[in-house]
Amino acid sequence: MSETEEQAVQAEEEETAAARQERRRHHATAIRLVRQFPDPALRTPARTVEDVDDEVRELAARMAEIMEQAHGVGLAAPQIGVLRRLLVYRLSADDDPRIIVNPTISDLSEDKDVDSEGCLSLLGGELQVPIERSLRLVMTGLDGDGKPVRVEADGLEARVLQHEVDHLNGVLILDRAAKEDRRALMRELRLRA
């Protein structure tokens, strides 16, 4: 490898390291904006949004930004201390965030599955715990323009929506975890506090 090629490789490695460091900084900043257990806002049921106005749209945009920087797939307004029935989510980095105001879940399937879930409000999502959720659901609510929206979800999308609606109702994965998993999670939370 020539000296010029070595310099190019070294510059690329430095740029990659700088980009990783910048992503970590954004992640840490975003996590500081997310309320952490045992913050009382996480246990308080959210209020219905009366009007989808610019304030609500700005809140949703802020939530989407925090969710993305924290590397989350969903975020409910109570997680940033706003007790309003609003959630944002996206299943992959390629998807645009979806906004659902005043979500209501119906038609939960009786078919269920257990899978690991983390939560940005529990040590920034570092801890995972097995949670049983319905495999399919229908959710209705309003979009960011205040127009009715209906989502028929299955798999990961259904799991994320159930998780975020739990937040709107003051419910955490701690409440849904099996007794032994809850004990282990609480022990870990105490150790890291």
Spell out the blueprint of helices and strands.
Blueprint: H1 3-33, H2 54-69, E1 74-76, E2 86-89, E3 98-106, E4 112-117, E5 129-134, E6 136-142, E7 148-154, H3 155-168, H4 173-176, H5 179-192
Antiparallel strand pairs: 1-2, 2-3, 3-6, 4-5, 6-7
Q: What fraction strand? A: 15-25%
> Could you list the spans in which at least 5 consecutive residues all have pLDDT below 50?
none
Give the helix proportion (percent range). 40-55%
Run of helices and strands: HHEEEEEEEHHH
- The CATH homologous superfamily is named Peptide deformylase
Helices, by number, come to 5
How many domains, in number, for the residues?
Answer: 1
The CATH class is identified as Alpha Beta
Q: Quaternary state, please?
A: single chain
| Count of strand segments | 7
Any idea of the CATH topology? Peptide Deformylase
Find the structural class using helix and strand composition. Answer: alpha+beta
What overall geometry do the principal axes of the alpha carbons give? globular
Based on the structure given, which CATH architecture is correct? Alpha-Beta Complex
Rounded to an integer in angstroms, the radius of gyration calculated over CA atoms is 19 Å
